[in-house]
Design brief:
Blueprint lengths: L2 E6 L4 E6 L3 E7 L5 E2 L5 E11 L4 H11 L6 H21 L3 H6 L1 H20 L2 E12 L10 H43 L1
Antiparallel strand pairs: 1-2, 3-5, 4-5, 5-6
Helix pairs in contact: 1-4, 2-4
């Protein structure tokens, strides 16, 4: 296991700083889901892979950012999760729900760009990669019709699903008419 050491010679404190890659998973769904540009909510599961580079300045910044806590994925999560969530929310707010799903790599790249430099300069952490594991529309039954953003999303979802239902019924009816026309044509030929 690779580790760095930070030694405070004034108070003779030694702290081990892991140089291994840490996996931080962030899940936001339901009322905590991300609000998109088109006022939909997106349930997301994202994994961030971070590490401290074996560079003196990075090890020092990581040790200072952690304070008296040891470096574990849990303490790192506690320290940086608000930054990660903020980056997710700001990128989602600039994208439509469909883009989050269909352009996952672009979404991941924008999130990495939004928080990577800040993590390094303030916390000594290098954001190796961002993996978008899951993106899905938040179920309508969990949305709050009294919330302006949710109300717009509910209206849009209702309109889209109603249009899709009407189109499905129309296709089914045309199919039935075509079948009846074939049967009538067959009977006429027989007669």
């Amino acid at each position: 296991i690779a580790k760095g050491l930070w030694v405070n010679t004034i108070i003779h404190e030694i702290k081990e700083i892991s140089l291994n890659t840490m996996r931080i998973e962030v899940i936001r769904e339901g009322t905590e889901a991300l609000i998109t540009y088109d006022f939909n909510r997106g349930d997301v599961e994202v994994v961030f892979y971070l590490k401290v580079e074996p560079i003196e300045d990075d090890v020092l910044r990581a040790a200072q950012a952690l304070g008296d806590k040891s470096m574990t994925p849990e303490t790192v999560r506690e320290l940086i999760e608000p930054k990660l969530e903020g980056a997710l929310r700001s990128v989602a707010a600039e994208s439509e729900i469909q883009d989050l799903l269909q352009k996952r790599q672009e979404f991941a790249d924008k999130v990495q760009e939004a928080c990577g430099e800040d993590l390094e300069t303030q916390n000594g952490l290098t954001l190796e990669t961002v993996s978008i594991i899951r993106v899905d529309q938040t179920p309508v039954d969990t949305l709050d019709a009294e919330n302006r953003f949710d109300a717009v999303g509910i209206r849009e979802i209702t309109e889209i699903t109603a249009d899709q239902y009407r189109e499905k019924v129309d296709i089914e009816q045309r199919k039935e008419v075509a079948v009846v026309q074939i049967e009538v044509s067959a009977r006429i030929e027989k007669l």
